[in-house]
Amino acid sequence: MKIERLSQDKIRIFLTFDDLLERGIQKEDMWREIPKVNELFSEMMDQAHSELGFEASGPLAVEVFALPAQGMVVIVTRGKLNVHADDSIHEDDESDEDVYEMEVTLEQSDMVMYAFRDFEDVIAVAKQLSQSELTDDGRLFSYNGKYIMAIDPSSIDPSRHNALIALLAEFGEATSVTEAVLEEYGKVIMDEGAVRQLCQYFSY
């Protein structure tokens, strides 16, 4: 479990599938009101408080992004909630100290999205992907001072998804940004065949 602060009232939590399996939680459970998920959320909030000083007070908006093969990203925003009875989760009201009002939304991305701080890392991962014959495809964006590689998993042999993720994770980190956001607010560097183009242009 990895937690980072995005702003004063917003944090991002990255959960690997191993994190979920250790707690007996399936991906589909993340938007169900069950004790194991409530316990996981409490654990996440405790860790956010101890690591970042983030107080989970008042209403919380929770966005859950399911990422193929690498895990889930949970965005928690404090103080922004439009309560809908059908999709909010309430902890036991008798325990006032641990009451969270949450509105949970789930989005599933079919794209594998990884962010890289340095262009050298983008080149390095492209060479590894090509040499390993995992893919020559992909789209490359620039967004918020980072380089984002977007790869369509349908173009990858399913048995090699884990190898693809492991290689990308070695050089970068999973990101919850969507292709729609990248196309609207980011800059397209390579619109197709990014891995192939990077290997051609930077063959040293």
UniProtKB/TrEMBL annotation:
Top-rank taxon, per record: Bacteria
Domain notes: The N-terminal domain probably binds unfolded/aggregated proteins; the C-terminal domain interacts with ClpC.
Family assignment from sequence similarity: Belongs to the MecA family.
MF GO annotations: protein-macromolecule adaptor activity
InterPro entries xrefs: MecA_C_sf, Neg-reg_MecA
Pfam families: MecA (PF05389)
Protein name, entry field: Adapter protein MecA
Known partners and oligomeric status: Homodimer.
Function: Enables the recognition and targeting of unfolded and aggregated proteins to the ClpC protease or to other proteins involved in proteolysis.
Coiled coil: none
Organism per entry: Paenibacillus cellulosilyticus
